[in-house]
């Protein structure tokens, strides 16, 4: 009985628990799962799972008036700069953030919403060939992976999204993706993505399924488009529109 009381007294909780979790999340630089957070403590110190969850919730509330926020993503919890403050924080780095072409974003959206999907099926929906550079870029970013092969002649690879993709877009799971109805209004979506004028929403629908897709991101840097234009011109065509040499994928 004495040993149990001593263990209870040595258990870390309250304000100290919250400070430890905050420090760990700041130091980690990546999301930490509840299991990883619990592993910070010895057997005698470790609080119950419910206590850790309450401390995380309190930390989330405490961050409401601060410049950072606690977000739960697919890999766990992480502390990050609030999105509305990115404009100023990004000035700490001189290099420009990587920008992505419309062709790459459309490909990423099709994989996210219709996975598992083959390259040929993506090309069927978009109406143009998919540049190898686009697939390579998405794989190098660890946003997509091969999840199997279609049981048809040639055994084409089936692509699906990864946990890193979910983390990158502040998603816990695929159910958190915007519904197609929510992103149907392209005019409202484009200012957020900083894209060129898009084709009519109907052009992004697959004839058989009538689905429209769009993923979050940015368009490609005009300065880099010309260099890639000759190599991947076909991959830059918008569905139902003439080829646009400004939509090549940037690796």
What does this structure look like?
This protein has 251 residues and is α+β, with helices and mostly antiparallel strands. It has two domains: 2-92, Orthogonal Bundle (Arc Repressor Mutant, subunit A), CATH 1.10.10.10; 102-236, Orthogonal Bundle (Arc Repressor Mutant, subunit A), CATH 1.10.10. The protein has eleven helices and five strands, in the order H-H-H-H-E-E-H-H-E-H-H-E-E-H-H-H. The strands form two sheets. Strands 3-5-4 form a three-stranded antiparallel sheet. Strands 1-2 form a two-stranded antiparallel sheet. The longest helix has 15 residues, at 14-28. The protein is elongated, with a radius of gyration of 23 Å.
Structural topology:
Blueprint: H1 2-10, H2 14-28, H3 34-38, H4 49-62, E1 68-73, E2 76-81, H5 86-89, H6 102-114, E3 117-118, H7 119-126, H8 132-140, E4 144-149, E5 157-161, H9 163-168, H10 186-193, H11 222-229
Antiparallel strand pairs: 1-2, 3-5, 4-5
Helix pairs in contact: 2-4
Main sheet characteristics:
3 strands, antiparallel
Strand arrangement across the biggest beta sheet? 3-5-4
The sequence of SSEs as H and E is HHHHEEHHEHHEEHHH
CATH class type of the largest domain: Mainly Alpha
CATH superfamily of the largest domain: Winged helix-like DNA-binding domain superfamily/Winged helix DNA-binding domain
Domain count, please report it.
2
Termini gap = 63 Å
Features:
disordered C terminus, 251 residues, 10% strand, Arc Repressor Mutant, subunit A, disordered N terminus, 5 strands, three-stranded antiparallel sheet, alpha+beta
